[in-house]
Amino acid sequence: MLVVKFGGNGSLNLEAFCSDVAYMVQNGHKVVVVHGGSREMDLISEKLGKPPIFITTPSGFQCRYTDRETMEIFTMVVAGRVNKLVVERLQKLGVNAIGLSGLDGRLIQGERKGVIIAQEGNKRKVLKGDYGGTVKAVNAVLLRLLLDHGYTPVIAPIALSDEGEALNVDGDRVAAAVAGALGAEALLILSGVPGLLAAFPDESTLITEIPGHKIGDYLELYARGRMKKKLLGAMEAISYGVPLVILADGRVEKPIRRALEGCGTFIKQGG
Questions:
Q1: Domain count, the chain
Q2: CATH classification at residue 136
Q3: Domain that holds residue 199
Q4: Does residue 171 contact residue 33 with C-beta atoms inside 8 Å?
């Protein structure tokens, strides 16, 4: 059982990724895919006259401000275009993929933030009406039912609030929650870098191993930009009991197999 998060920044090799998913499935592995879509979202929202708004929180994390109109565009792009393109490619390769968002069958339940705080220099700004959220629960029964009947779930990072609202939730943290709920053997987080870099963007400074109990230290010392969320997702996966998290390169051929063979940053339970 593998859960693989495939980023959405536009630099990743989608064809190679889908080919590798097909290889894993056809060789007896159960795979769950969680994908992003930030690049596509930015492009399409610009064309629709709704430019993206990103803020940095006081703790240093970058996130998208998601009002209701942005949430509807996000659903259209990520659960629609991006999700179905991944499913289409996997079906062409003989994988019986099924595209889902967290709304479907209450797959991902979340809690709406409503208000987020932006750090702008020495000032803090309160933004209301946000439809961003955090993951509360995963419908593992539904995922196991699909997996046991030969389907490969492809999940868009949208959650359902207790009030029945769609929420924009972080894909890395969704993947961590899914891996924990399913008792996956490993979580792979593929992005546009080979793993955690000690001196970003110098790829020769790859950190190959992080002790599981020291992820917080490495997050504070080395993570920059989006890597902060990826390490946070890794930390949560380890806390859920996932034995192995790998941060690896999604731009290369055979990205899943390369990661499992030792390429990337390895984080092990109890390490």
A1: 1
A2: 3.40.1160.10
A3: 2-268
A4: no
Ramachandran region, residue 120 (left: φ > 0; alpha: ψ -120 to 50; beta: rest): beta
Residue 102, C-beta contacts closer than 8 angstroms, at least 6 positions apart: 108, 109, 110, 155, 156, 157, 158, 159, 160, 167, 169, 174
The strand ranges marked E within the chain are 2-6, 31-35, 54-56, 62-64, 97-101, 108-120, 123-138, 152-156, 158-161, 166-169, 186-191, 209-211, 244-249, 265-268
- Asked if 143 and 153 count as a contact pair (C-beta separation under 8 A), the reply is yes
Query: What amino acid occupies position 134?
Result: T
pLDDT in tens, the chain (271 residues): 999 999 877 778 999 999 999 999 999 999 999 999 999 999 999 999 999 999 999 888 889 999 999 999 999 999 999 999 999 999 999 999 999 999 999 999 999 998 999 998 888 999 999 999 999 999 999 999 999 999 999 999 999 999 999 999 999 999 999 999 999 999 999 999 999 999 999 999 999 999 999 999 999 999 998 899 999 999 999 999 999 999 999 999 999 999 999 999 999 987 6
CA 228: distance to chain centroid? 12
Query: DSSP string of 95-127?
Result: --EEEEETTGGG-EEEEEEEEEEEEETTEEEEE
Q: Which two tokens stand for residue 73?
A: 């565009």
Distance CA 143, CA 31 (A): 11
